[in-house]
Amino acid sequence: MRIGFDAKRAYNNFSGLGNYSRYVISNICRFFPENECLLYTPSIADPDLFHEPEDAIVKLPRTWIGRYHRSYWRSFRLAHWLNADAVDIYHGLSNELPYGIHRSGVKSVITIHDLIFLQYPGLYKPFDRYVYRKKVRYGTRVATRIIAVSEQTRQDIIRFLSVDPTRIRVVYQGCHRQFYNRVSPETKRYISQQF
Length: 195
Known about the structure:
By secondary structure, this protein is an alpha/beta fold. The protein has a single domain (2-194), classed as Glycogen Phosphorylase B (Rossmann fold, 3-Layer(aba) Sandwich), CATH 3.40.50.2000. The chain has 8 helices and 7 strands, in the order βααββααββααβαβα. It has a 7-stranded parallel β-sheet with strand order 3-2-1-4-5-6-7, sandwiched between helices. Helix 7 links the parallel strand 6 (145-148) and strand 7 (168-170). The protein starts with a strand and ends with a helix. The relative contact order is 0.12.
């Protein structure tokens, strides 16, 4: 199977969504080597930020329009390239899918991290809210499957976007081993008693 990933955050975000993207891409490519992983990114901010899995194929914009109008390429041209690259399924790792994917024949998964811009609109500029809302509404409307990173996010998707709950799966975020520390059962008991 050919799996396409939105790899913008993996190559351009140093924390948060970047960590999530790097973790998901690395683990899917590592644990399911029979699949071909295509990583779509409009640019690479720092080549040392993400060392993609050995067999992964990095896909950058091929035309000058894509290279100079990166948001346009990612939002409006990417569905064409997914189809041209014979991608079977595309994973939008950060609240969005490329426009037109529903007409491309490519199955899609969208991960929704949060809908804070809908829950607390006063924290966002009106234009940013408009763009985020438009992208997340489109993505959740056309995605083959929706991943929510928590039960609260799942409830927010249902509440704010009126999405059929059967289309949403909660998949908690993994934790890279560099951030993981084992704790003793005694420490767990102590902490759970405190809180």
